[in-house]
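Subject: Sanity check before I submit

Could someone independently write out the structure tokens for this chain? I want to compare against mine line by line before I put it in a report. The sequence has 161 residues.
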Amino acid sequence: MDTAQVLAYLHAQRDRIVNAIAALEAMGWTAAAKLTTSTAAKAAKPAAVKGPKTTPVAAPISTKRIISPEARQRMAEAQQKRWAKKKRSVKAATKKAAAVAPAATKSAKVATVAADAVKGLRKPMSPATKKKLAAAAKASWAKKAAAKAPAAKAAKDAATA
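---
Independent answer below. Compare away.
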């Protein structure tokens, strides 16, 4: 296109925009009116320049909350107090368990189990219970495998046919 043609096109476009603005102002719109519709908001944004290898990139929407340093410090202190309270209660319970079950009468293993129970750990599983759980798990796996087998066989047959 020739420069004169480009200028003529831009002048014509400017005239159309001026006429559109005048029509809107005649209906009660003013230039200072607040843009509330999504199309008006989109129109207010500058157009992205598209080149042969570029694509428009949307601005990232940040929903990350910002915490002030003072609030972060208060949170850290509160968490440290919670940890200290838990540690104190575990130590007190361990001392109480040690006082109730003297080491001279019980083996070290029993004392360890008692201390673990105080900390909230589970009681060790007996070998018989482990065997029952293993058998139940194997039965469950076999049941699932049996349910999948007909579907897998049908799919294999369909693929070979």
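---
OP: Matches mine. For the report I'm noting this point. The CA atoms of residues 74 and 145 lie 53 Å apart.
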